[in-house]
Amino acid sequence: MKLILLFSIITLSACANKQTRITERQKVILEKMAQVKIQYYKKAALLEAIKKTDTSALKQQQIAKELVAADGIKIHALLALQKEYDSLETILMKK
Predict the structure, then answer these.
(1) Which long-range contacts (CB under 8 A, 24 or more apart) does 88-95 make?
(2) DSSP state string for 21-85
């Protein structure tokens, strides 16, 4: 009887620890997502400022390419983080 009680306590403890680890990982993912967005908006603002000061067509085209590349990097990073977040959310929902 004591063995069964001990086993159930260990099992419940392990589940609680796993849930805590998943929740902590989700917080880290949300922080990374915020950092990716901040970096993108900083770069976009910088490029827009350069775009206003330099009116040459070649520079405007180069800035446009850099904006598109930065947006692609942001989207790729956010998608990967969102997929990981969603998979962790699914694990939590199953419990």
Answers:
(1) 88/22, 88/25, 88/26, 88/29, 89/26, 91/22, 92/19, 92/22, 92/23, 95/15, 95/19
(2) HHHHHHHHHHHHHHHHHHHHHHHHHHHHHHHHH---HHHHHHHHHHHHHHHHHHHHHHHHHHHHH
Please tell me the distance from the alpha carbon of residue 89 to that of residue 34, in angstroms, as a whole number: 18
pLDDT tens by residue, the chain, 95 residues: 555 554 555 555 556 678 888 899 999 999 999 999 999 999 999 999 988 888 888 888 999 999 999 999 999 999 999 999 999 999 888 86
Residue 74 token pair? 């942001």
pTM value > 0.85: no
